[in-house]
């Protein structure tokens, strides 16, 4: 019951946020240098008739808010118009490109789940030990480095020198796609893994030194219970609380990674559109990515609610 | 000896030549030897830094990784020093268990009470549920009120009781209780100690009770070991200790204990050891010249409520509280945590706006002439500035007109001297000072504003006993100089020594008020009487008998 | 992504700190060299010597059009580092006073500042910069200016929470009771206690700005084509990875080490400055 209220509120908030984003995105047409007609025609010189037909087609003679309402009405039906560069439907472009980007993000999440918490737990449980020092030094290096630079090093070592993985493209068929996406997903995951490892390590180190672990050991609680219910559960909290941030980073970080590995995803679509000032595509991609990010945040908050009884009480009381 | 296992008379625990060293080789505990027989209670008494907690951890085999124990610790036949964790692990719980000091960090916040208990109880399903309920009611809590709750939904007293139930779940032969009630309110402390005592008798369990309070040690234990600076000062029968102890150190500890039934002439430990300071004096002897009945502070119908955070209910911290402070007198405000005493102090200081009611100062007294000494010595001074900077700021703000550097320095030196510190302290930084020294500096800073009224909010609650009495004497000297004082405390003994009149606060209301001597000698209100009864007397009777209040209430701490 | 002050490792081994400081000095030295010149020749194109792996004449080889990679990497230090440094200084200069005021005044002021910063923080900053820098064509410095505002919130939040933590400490209340004015309490009492936070934030912001601006250059939307910005170099030399990998590895390594040094020095300074207190 109360969960429903919470969920309802969050969904309303997402709709409102999307409205604001859509308004700002729509306004780009008028904020960009150059007249709207010229922007929508593209870089080639245009005749008066062409300009008039564009004005007609996009309703540019109507008042600003009416134009926005029309545009929004179409956008709700996933109609963002056609690409200026090649005349394709923006929505079909988006659908075509989303698959790659979403698989890349999911692959990165799998890597994150497999690596981040165990590494942080090992470092934190023996804080100050050799493993901790190595892990801490490496994560400090990776957490701060630009993704395209670490990605290039991966690409050079595993793609050029060792030739274990392909250095560009997407591939076809499940295994081939996984093979192609390994280096990009690793690049995407590395900075985030380092961040989560650092957070997990800090929490694990605190729990290991906590009174309740000492008390648990003193009263004879089984080591397995201490490791799982005390340490593992407590140390997964940073991963859960940062999930929104992490997913957001995965969805926006693909822009750089797709460029580095020449992968035809949403990110490269957006970059190309921005470089060629292909406004309808930019608008569609921006709104789609924003929607993904907002949805990811909702998922993250819901999982936080599921694992932390304190948050549950604070939110649902 | 109801436990029955083990040879009768044989030691349950024997510690011989225990030494705990840090990674730099320095000994934190050195040459500690004592033993505990089945069913016996031994108290380990010492001030902070005496090594008593480390000794307990070493006995449990749970020293922090960077410390090492040497010597010998035996649980019956098992040698703990150098033993493998696998061996000790199976013995912790049924042989030796431990209860820690802070109820707020004792339990896993992500685990509900029933699961905490289930971790060390046998059985499953309905059988286990029944056992859990039994164990919860054993510690005086109605099972339904705690079973499905998380630790952070419970009061400190309830958490400590659940901790006790968890520690005893496998009926250990020996319980190591490390300051188990220090973090609790006085009335809750006595109830929990009585509960521990009763359960101990019921289980036929031996106990090592670690405490800083000699009176709790004498009322609960059969034998006492006194520790200081990592070593044993003396150990012996509880009656030896009750009659004052054989060693100088122990006698100092006793001397630092403030009585609740009389006012002492001099609070300093040295003076009391001489005998001169220990003489009782009439209660109203402090007021200096000019002490009289003219009120300089009047509080009328003061109420303060705090708005709720989120969806919870708001809190009524103060409910129509009124008081008068006469010039040159000292007014005590006695209360437990949650009584509203600190809120009252903050309203008087103008740090908090009352919801209704008034705080009036006699005309002619500026806000700046009402100063404060806070409870926490560690955050009372700005870590970024030297002592001299903090004191000079006070002088300059009082003087208004610019003073020369020399004038300021001279005044600082004189004031530091008056609180018992050398003038060279002005050059030092806060982090190099002990807690007692910091509180003296805080007093000096307040005095430099030449206040009319000094509000003291638990100024010695965070200090060791021997340091407490020295700082309290400084405050008494200030009273003798004619300073009026509002003295907030939870400690009836401290109130006896420092105040002329007291008000007793309970849940934001005044329940009793009057001259200190008559309130403490002959309390009229049931709550005041309960507070007084919860002051440790050092006698066996203090710990025997049923709890003072029906427990299981959510309000016991 | 920012690493957050609350997650720093307990203590770094001092050898790594020394190396980080040494590398930071090296980068500073390169900046000076690239200003002074010292016979550096990053722009001359020698098409006959293009795409060469390292030779005695060109220690890191040459790029697509025969420019000396070493000279370009050295010259790129100032081009790459000065923008992020300016962004970090700007962001801290805005964040710290705002944090002090928000913490001190509380109420509406605090709510407005914090909600605004929450909103900015929720924006995917790299997308915003890409869209603005790309569509508006303002290039590197417009992106840097926008970036200042996108980076302010993270430091602002940390500084505010530290300032708020100080606000109700007894020493602050003692200063109020003495009669110290609000500005005096903010600047004489609170500000010095924010120093460790400010220093750490400065370096964290620098790293965040370095990542954002070099990413933008890498995508071809920041520094102009042919610039010696390490991000631009990396992107333009990517297709040389088989013939002369050093042409893109060198700027990548420089970027990673610069970011790493700044993070390590930030951690170290934060701990050192905190350690001086009680």
From TrEMBL, chain A:
Lineage of the organism: Bacteria, Bacillati, Actinomycetota, Actinomycetes, Jiangellales
Record field: transmembrane: 12-32, 104-125, 137-165, 177-197, 239-261, 281-300
Main location: membrane
Every ABC transmembrane type-1 domain range: 98-300
SUPFAM superfamilies: MetI-like
Tree of life domain: Bacteria
Keywords: Cell membrane, Membrane, Transmembrane, Transmembrane helix, Transport
Family membership: Belongs to the binding-protein-dependent transport system permease family.
The keyword Transport is assigned to this record: yes
Any one annotated GO CC term: plasma membrane
Membrane topology, from the record: Multi-pass membrane protein
Keyword Membrane included in the entry's annotation: yes
Entry-linked PROSITE patterns: ABC_TM1 (PS50928)
Any GO BP annotation: transmembrane transport
Protein name per the record: ABC transporter permease
UniProt subcellular location: Cell membrane
UniProtKB/TrEMBL annotation, chain C:
UniProt name for this protein: ABC transporter permease
Keyword Methyltransferase part of the UniProt annotation: no
Keywords: Cell membrane, Membrane, Transmembrane, Transmembrane helix, Transport
GO BP, one annotated term: transmembrane transport
Origin superkingdom: Bacteria
CDD domains (alphabetical): TM_PBP2
Any single GO CC term annotated in Swiss-Prot or TrEMBL for this entry: plasma membrane
Record's subcellular location: Cell membrane
Domain spans labelled ABC transmembrane type-1: 77-266
Organism for this UniProt entry: Jiangella anatolica
Keyword DNA damage in annotation: no
Family per record: Belongs to the binding-protein-dependent transport system permease family.
Membrane topology reported for the UniProt record: Multi-pass membrane protein
TM segment ranges: 15-38, 81-103, 123-152, 194-223, 243-269
